[in-house]
Write a structure and sequence with these properties.
Layout (H helix, E strand, L loop, with lengths): L2 E3 L3 H11 L5 H19 L5 E7 L4 E7 L4 E6 L6 H7 L7 E6 L6 E7 L9 E4 L2 E2 L3 H11 L6 E8 L1 H9 L4 E8 L2 E2 L5 E2 L5 H6 L3
Parallel strand pairs: 1-10, 4-5, 4-7, 7-9, 8-9, 9-10
Antiparallel strand pairs: 2-3, 5-6, 11-12
This protein binds uracil.
Pathway: Pyrimidine metabolism; UMP biosynthesis via salvage pathway; UMP from uracil: step 1/1
EC number: 2.4.2.9
Family: Belongs to the UPRTase family.
């Protein structure tokens, strides 16, 4: 599996803000937004462009646009905080949704919502989920996508645990990973260590 860790200095700085337990919800959301921009830049590197004629104020020239923009699929709820940034770089992108709850005892993903186009054949997909922990939710989400014909899926994650990276690689699914960091490990509660805590609670408050 292709794994890219974005080690840009600005990504490291935003990640530090997100990790810091003193960061409040608003500052956490702002750092997540900035970091998502950097992750999406990396995720779209190498995408093909289509050309079309434009006029500058001075001359005629060729313009470029993405030939096949990805569909964005945030995993609810923590992935919601990545949508706005991804859309600002990809204004033409369609957005689907997958709702995945985590059973706090078994740590297994429980899907509760799926809103996706009927077919994803020939369409790149970016799954937006800040945390790749056990990999269970991500594997399950990518299976939902491949069941609709997707064969070019990118998991865009702020942080990953080695266990999650392994689960995704071992799944044999057509997926690659773009992340800000691969951390040390999972703890007994399946939280990423050192991590940043619960990415949903850090954005929206514990409810
Ligand atoms: N989900 C989170 O929000 N945080 C973790 O550390 C693991 C899963």
């Amino acid at each position: 599996m292709d794994v890219r860790v974005v080690e840009h200095p600005l990504a490291l700085a935003r990640l530090t803000t997100m990790r810091d337990a003193r960061t409040d919800n608003a500052a956490f959301r702002a750092a997540l937004r900035d970091l998502t921009l950097l992750l999406v830049v990396e995720a779209t590197r190498g995408f093909g462009t289509a050309t079309f004629p434009i006029h500058t104020p001075v001359a005629r020239t060729e313009g470029h646009r993405l030939a096949n923009p990805p569909i964005l699929v945030p995993v609810l709820r923590a992935g919601l905080g990545m949508v706005d940034a991804a859309q600002s770089l990809l204004p033409e992108a369609q957005v689907g949704f997958v709702g995945m709850a985590r059973d706090e005892e078994t740590h297994l993903p429980t899907p509760y919502m799926e809103s996706l186009p009927p077919t994803l054949v020939g369409r790149p997909v970016f799954v937006l989920d800040p945390m790749l922990a056990t990999g269970g939710s991500m594997v399950h989400t990518v299976e939902l996508l491949t069941a609709r014909g997707a064969d070019d899926v990118t998991a865009v994650c702020v942080l990953a645990a080695p266990e999650g990276v392994r689960a995704l690689a071992d799944s044999g699914l057509p997926v690659r990973l773009v992340t800000g960091s691969i951390d040390e490990r999972l703890n007994d509660s399946a939280y990423i260590v050192p991590g940043l805590g619960d990415a949903g609670d850090r954005q929206f408050g514990a409810v």
